């Protein structure tokens, strides 16, 4: 069960006429007002229903409850992490919102290798930790390969025959 002071919900006032603002807010609260959960996410329950999924249908899924909901469901809906409802895609309300999110950067370690130009032509390749060969990232590809530091690409530019590691490619690839 959620402890008081961990989500923006309707207080003990006479719903829908009086919100006693027991939590300090009569409407939405600023993001980060309440402590994050154990995964570091803020405001997953209460404050505003979050539009979680679009799709082909006119109804949209929203989750988490809002500031006009109660913790125990004694009025409106119970605001819990699992609280779920549907709303028409054109619904506009002060207690419905969305969360901007992006996937975390995924970093793969690459070992720079040199292609034998006489044997395979003038192309560079890399071998990942599983021995699979890939094309070498070129400038402008940083976002596709999650290269966080231009120094790695500069190392590639500085690569010459003395620094290169020659690899043999087996006929069967993993």
TrEMBL record:
InterPro entries: CTDL_fold, Sulfatase_Mod_Factor_Kinase, SUMF_dom, SUMF_sf. GO terms for molecular function: formylglycine-generating oxidase activity. Residues 14-102 form the Sulfatase-modifying factor enzyme-like domain. Residues 137-174 are annotated as: Disordered. It holds the Pfam family FGE-sulfatase. It comes from the Eukaryota. Residues 148-165 have a biased composition (Acidic residues). Transmembrane segments: none annotated. PANTHER family: FORMYLGLYCINE-GENERATING ENZYME, SULFATASE MODIFYING FACTOR 1, 2. This is Sulfatase-modifying factor enzyme-like domain-containing protein. It comes from Pseudictyota dubia. The lineage of its organism: Eukaryota, Sar, Stramenopiles, Ochrophyta, Bacillariophyta.
